[in-house]
Amino acid sequence: MAVCELDLSAVDGSVIHFTQAFKALKKEGWKTLILAPEPSSKPPNYPLDIIYVDAPPSKSTAMSMMRRLEAYQRHLVAELRSGLVKFKLDIIYVRQGLLNIAPVLASALKDIPMMLEVNGDIAKELKIAGFSKAITGMFKLQAKMVYSRPSSIITVSEHVSTMLQENYGVEASRITVIPNGVDIDLFKPKSSDPELRERYSIPANAPVLLFTGYLVGWQGIDSNIALMPELLKHHPDLRFLIVGQGPVRESLEAQARELRVSESVIFTGPVPHTQVPKFIGISDICLSVKPPLLPGSPLKIREYMACGRPVIASCGTGYDFDMVETAKAGLLVDPSDNTQTIAAILKLLGDPSIREEMGGNGSRYAREHCSWASAAIATNSVAQDVLGWNGDDDKDSDRKDNAGVSQG
């Protein structure tokens, strides 16, 4: 049984991660039934079975969020009780959310082994988003309680693993690092789409920088826009294509106007995830130059690489961007040093052969090392270790009928 706090109708990295990971686990034989908050519009043709749990609408205030989560947890407890009666659950798999209390209690009361997947530091994310010290402190205390329960914790990067050990006292022996993946059937090298360039008034031969993702402060997009006046001196027809939506979009648009580069900085707004490869396809260089605020494993880097585009990303951060250097798929720069980023962009724009070589390296690396299928195989192995099933063919066969997961 999968339990989540995500709005599965949204187009963001968390939903993409959840959907792709559980599709891959389904291919590994896991049977899952997802419990999720009722969204304003249900996602059509969602590839997994869902039971929607009633949750009141939420405004962007801390109190509204808390009331919504409290109500959701109450309804979730009822659904979990029903699920525990109806289904034989072998394991409860919790994908970290704001409140994981209900599945933790279910694990403890019914003595069902629990696995937890951690993608970042929620307390720190809330602090950066402007929530009060009291709210962030409460979530940190709750996180410590949640982290004490699982038999095994999966993290998406070594930096997240270190954060859990240093900030929350989690034993290294309970942690396994399994990085995020990419849909290698969807994200593959594509030639530039002339109709898409025309839609956004991008000249046929104009070079294009690209960012895809949720527009929030920790993405560093404002620092990327700040580079444009200098870059346009060297490439007057350069375009910076920003694909996505988020709370800082208006401030980013205002910044572009103030710098007088608004004609060269293009905001597409939200686009379906299935269309993102086309946008990557019209780009020459993809960017993820973030400040060192949060640990994590961004999906976008793997999507850029899988599509065969060179990447410029941050070094010295809590993100797993070392893979860009390992794959020889791009360049890493100090996000606090704009001269480094400008030099890297100009170097790649000035040499198509290097871009082609790096793009090819990245595509091969993504296909060989970054598929969701690989992540699912690793996750399945951890689950079997937790259950003591590795090496037991009969139990492995039973798993296909009885495996249960809970994601929060």
Distance between termini? 11 Å
Under the CATH scheme, which architecture of the largest domain would be assigned? 3-Layer(aba) Sandwich
Number of distinct beta strands:
13
Structure classification: alpha/beta
What amount of the residues lies in strands? 5-15%
Topology-level CATH name of the largest domain: Rossmann fold
The total domain count is: 2
Sketch the topology as an H/E string, one letter per element: EHEEHEHEHHEHEHEHHEHEHEHEHEHHHH
Overall spatial form: globular
Low-confidence residue ranges: 395-403
Query: Which CATH class of the largest domain applies here?
Result: Alpha Beta
CATH superfamily of the largest domain: Glycogen Phosphorylase B
Strand order of the largest sheet: 10-9-8-11-12-13
Summarize the biggest pleated sheet.
6 strands, parallel
Number of helices: 17
Radius of gyration: 22 Å
Q: Mean pLDDT score, rounded? A: 85
Percentage of residues assigned to helices: 40-55%
Would you give an account of this structure?
The protein folds into two domains: 2-181 and 371-402, Glycogen Phosphorylase B (Rossmann fold); 194-369, Rossmann fold (3-Layer(aba) Sandwich), CATH 3.40.50.2000. The protein is globular and about 65 Å long. By secondary structure, the chain is an alpha/beta fold. Mean pLDDT is 85; it is low at 395-403. Helix content is 46%, strand content 13%. β12, α13 (322-326) and β13 (330-333) form a beta-alpha-beta unit. α1 packs across α16 and α12 crosses α15 (352-369). The strands form three sheets. It has a six-stranded parallel sheet with strand order 10-9-8-11-12-13, with helices on both faces. It contains 17 helices and 13 strands. The chain has helices at 13-27, 62-86, 101-110, 122-128, 133-147, 158-168, 194-199, 221-225, 228-234, 249-258, 276-281, 299-306, 322-326, 338-349, 352-369, 372-387, 393-402, and strands at 2-3, 34-37, 50-53, 92-95, 114-118, 152-155, 175-177, 208-212, 239-243, 265-269, 285-288, 311-314, 330-333.
